[in-house]
Write the structure tokens for this entry.
Amino acid sequence: MHQSPVDSSALLEITVRPDVVFVSGQGSWLTDSQGKVYLDFIQGWAVNSLGHAPAVLARAIAEQAQRLITPSPAYYSDKLLEFAGRLVAATPVDKVFFTNSGAEAVEGAVKLARKWGQVHKNGAYEIITFRNAFHGRTLTCMAASGKAGWDALFEPKTPGFPKAVYNDLESVARLVTDRTVAVMLEPVQGEGGVIPADDDFLRELRRFTQERGLLLILDEVQSGMGRTGKLFGHQHAGIVPDILTMGKGIGGGFPLAAMGCRAEVSCFAPGEQGGTYNGNALACAAGLAVLETLLAPGFLDAVEAAGTYLRERLDPVAQGLGYGRVRGRGLLLALALGCDRAAAVVEGCRERGLLVNNTRPDAIRLTPALTVSQTEIDQCVAILGEALAAAAG
Ligand SMILES: Cc1ncc(COP(=O)(O)O)c(C=O)c1O
């Protein structure tokens, strides 16, 4: 039997991890306890938008930690007000509620939509979601997700999430009843393998939901905050959601997420939504530092350019070896292999000092820091090419 050199016996087993212990990181690079350096194209599952230990974020956190960490969610802090103001000015939503994780933001969106259904739609509560979707790991978020194998887990889960087919408006229309209050989707299905929604589908869905008096909830926990080359994935289609969730890259690695809505949708009574750490000053200082960086002139254009460069370099290498093409947007990308060899490729990359991951057996997901350089992309493609060749046999 394999004897791990890492003593992880104190940790609850929730996933299989390789025998690597990381001790530090800088930009696109991570160092393990043996001094081995890795090029990180996972970045905490698309979380470290500015890479590891970015100076602007480290400084903001250190300064805020010495001034005020949290005054209690029952009070305002200067950072809470400043960050909320900056965020709504940059987004199509008018009001925002901060959370600690993406799942909590999605839960908030579901609660807000159900409350809105109680107030405005005769108690309608069903939210149409999509097959292959991922919305998080609370029981409600799991129910909203369309992940294979999750149906039977931890039953009974929260009811009220009929599943439509992604990019198929007819399948949505068929599920609408008097009970329907909203439709919720990711503009790019991230965990589902980086599958973008068609811009036309998003526009038609927006029109459809408006005509039927339904809310459109966009879960941009993964696709938001600059990841696709615009601040939000839905901006590619030129639509505006009623409720928007944000997470992952919003804190640059600091635990932070948010749920925002248009003013007309805001209908929580005091006490119906909240949480001990929600909107604490330290998290807001981190979010503010990240947002200011993302909004700096040229930053998002550089994300778009880096994504195009990665695609143009990787496509010919992969296709030369008989694999598929890169899909996705900006720096939310996946290489479609066309065969179930992703696990071997991921392992081959790690042995060679590159971190990538696979959310399904036939695709390699690439979510580098939004600040990744062309040299680092070249290094990634070189290593990935070697691992792809090795896995090809
Ligand atoms: C689209 C989407 N929504 C929600 C979540 C859940 O976020 P968290 O893991 O921060 O709870 C994720 C996480 O991958 C996600 O990709």
